[in-house]
Every structure is written in structure tokens, then in C-alpha cells.
Input
Amino acid sequence: MRTLLASFLLAVVSINMISCQQYSAGLQKGSNRAEETSAIGSLRTIAQAQTTFSISNAGNYGTFEQLTEGGFLDSRFHHSSPALHGYVFNMQVNPATEGSQGSYSCNADPAPTSNLGGRHFYIDSISQEIRANATQPATDKDEPLKP
Output
């Protein structure tokens, strides 16, 4: 009888542990999605700021510092590689030259200190579509996000 009761209790404890692990994994996925949603929103804000900056700066695009100093982005972005909500943003800006337009590209990658993981995102001045890659920094060759 004791063996049967011990086996039953062991089964109940095992089921509870599995349930807790699944619940924790679900919370982690939820946190990942929230961080990703924030990164995507930030990239859209950056694209809008770049478009506005370009119109008033002869087709040139701005660095994060120029965009914040000009009032196009808020002070959270006033850094060469701002970190927001578990993501690090990096901007490449190419000035307009005679015969070619300026351009920019921006990556949002999970912060190295974040244990949440998450996808990598990319946007540029050519298409302004946000692109994603699950395993490495995204580029213009990656698939665009689907709405």
C-alpha cells in the first residue's frame, strides 16, 4: 500500500513539475514577443524619423544622435547604439553624394545580456519593410515581416 501511495505522490509531483516548466516556457515566449513587438515599434519610429529628417536635410539621413538632437527621436535614442527593451539598435548612414542619394539601414538585435533570445530585425531607406532573422543579424536579404 505504501509503495502504491509513494508512486502516486511521485507521479503527482512529476506532473506538477512538468506543468511548471511549460508555464515558465510560456511566460518566456510571452516576454520574447513583448520585446520583439517593442523593437518592431521602435524600428517604425526610426523609419518615420529618418524620412522626416531626410526631407529637411537635402536627402541625407541622420545618426541616432542627430535624430535626437533635431527632435525627431526622444532622448532614449541619444546614443550611437541605443539599448531599449532588451534590444540593441545599430544604424549605418551613408551621406548623399553627387549623383547618389543618401541611405540608412538599422538593425535591432537582442541584447547580449538578455537571456530572452528573440529574433533579429532590419530596416533600411530603400524599402522600409522590416525584415527578420531568427538566428543572426537580419539583412535586406531576409524575409519581410508579415502583418
Observations:
- Helices lie at 2-55, 64-69.
- Residues 110 and 117 are 6 Å apart (CA to CA).
